Amino acid sequence: MATIDEYLSQIKDLTIVPPVLLSILSLEDDNELSFGELEKKVQSDQVLVARLLKLANSPFFSRGNPVANMKQVITRLGFKTVRSMVAMSMTDSLFSQGNYKKFRDEVWDYSVAKGILAHIICEEKKLRKEGELAITCGLMQDLGKIVLNTIDRKKYVEVLTEYQTSDLEISALETKHFGINSDEMGSAAASLWKMPVPIQQTIDDLRKSANEQGILSQVIGFAGVIAKKTGHGKKDQTTDERFSEYSDLLSLPTDDVEATCAKYAEKLSTSELYQFCSTL
């Protein structure tokens, strides 16, 4: 069984995370320089440009005034929304490696739902700073699963198959098959590739108890639980317990769990960002 250092040596020269994605994730504020950089990077992907133009001209955003170029798209949708959409579009290719439906269904759909729900919760709690990071951090928190899947796709599908047909937690199955779990792998890979600090922190927090995590990680953790309780990823034996734990930590009123989940499921399904992901 390989060690984490041996796995890192296998992936250090692989372009698992495209450099352009790393540079987009590192764009901090919607200042003039970042705005121009985002426009330039998006322009290089004509398929992505077409998707963003279609969304910007949809009834939800257009208000009868069509847009025809990326500068207008970023102005209309907002810098942070476009950055999130670019991240979603590019991470889609990461989660699709090997074209395994199980991996896409169990990991990609869950990560997207988790990130968008985390953003919704941040808006509700008026966590402006955390809200700006929630989608990209939620998406990239499962980086370790992407890495293990890239290292040995056949073996990782075995992990997912056993996970979906047993009561075992996925981290235990990853350790059984790879010698390490995806949380450990994700932390090491994020550090190796010098990913933005907030992303590294939310990945590192996966190995901490809920009350030791930062506020953004707690929101993402709660969003991940809601995602599983509403059909995005497998609900396991710890889901209900973690729902109560995170809701208490975040001081969220959850007397009616079913109603709470239904509320967030509705907000997710009507989210323009989630609808955008359905086009990927």
Summarize this entry quickly.
This protein has about 280 residues and is mostly helical. The protein has helices at about 5-10, 20-25, 30-45, 45-55, 60, 70-75, 80-95, 100-125, 130-140, 145-150, 155-165, 170-180, 180-190, 195-205, 215-230, 240-250, 255-270, 270-275. The model has no long low-confidence stretch (mean pLDDT about 85).
Return the structural class. mainly alpha
Report, as a whole number of angstroms, the end-to-end distance: 36 Å
Strand content: under 5%
Q: How many β-strands, per DSSP? A: 0
Q: Tally the helices: what do you get?
A: 18
Envelope shape: globular
The pLDDT mean sits at 86
Residue share in helices? over 70%
Helix and strand run:
HHHHHHHHHHHHHHHHHH
Q: Radius of gyration over alpha carbons? A: 19 Å
Low-confidence stretches: none
Largest sheet: none
